[in-house]
Amino acid sequence: MSNKVLAEKVKMTQIWKDERVVPVTVLKFKEDSDFLKEIKPDDKLRVSGVSKGRGFQGVVKRYGFHGGPKSHGQKDRLRAPGSIGATAPQRVIKGRKMAGHMGNVRVTVRNLVVAAVKPEEKILMVRGAVPGARGTMIEIRKT
């Protein structure tokens, strides 16, 4: 079996497993591979893909900052980051969390569990969310 294989993210859906509804992501393989024949339900996978791009975002959406108070004399500070540094170094320290481009980066999700395998249809169903938009190529490795 090769170290990694590529598949297309088709969609998310739900399947019944042990009398419970389980959210799964459907991945479709382009060509036949030994990977589908060797993998079985409840195996763990490491899945990589490019996350959805969110464009230029502020610190509240990008990092989960709480923003400023809504009253006590505040006017335009609701979603602002607050202070970005002290007077003493007279510069902004590297690595400061600020507004900027969010998403569109490679993301790896570990320990995703295989929910179902359909080798005749070249389909693999993985429990949970997989990074990326529908139709993007996903890299799958067995852990």
From TrEMBL:
Provide the GO biological process annotations: translation
Keyword check for Aminoacyl-tRNA synthetase, yes or no.
no
Family matches, as Pfam families: Ribosomal_L3
Q: Which terms in the GO cellular component ontology are assigned?
A: cytosolic large ribosomal subunit
Q: Where is this region: Disordered?
A: 61-87
- UniProt cross-references to InterPro entries, sorted A to Z: Ribosomal_uL3, Ribosomal_uL3_bac/org-type, Transl_B-barrel_sf
Q: Which UniProt keywords apply?
A: Ribonucleoprotein, Ribosomal protein, RNA-binding, rRNA-binding
Q: Name one GO molecular function term.
A: rRNA binding
Query: What PANTHER family would the database entry show?
Result: 50S RIBOSOMAL PROTEIN L3, LARGE RIBOSOMAL SUBUNIT PROTEIN UL3C
Task: Return the similarity comment.
Answer: Belongs to the universal ribosomal protein uL3 family.
Q: What is this protein called?
A: Large ribosomal subunit protein uL3
Origin organism lineage: Bacteria, Candidatus Joergenseniibacteriota
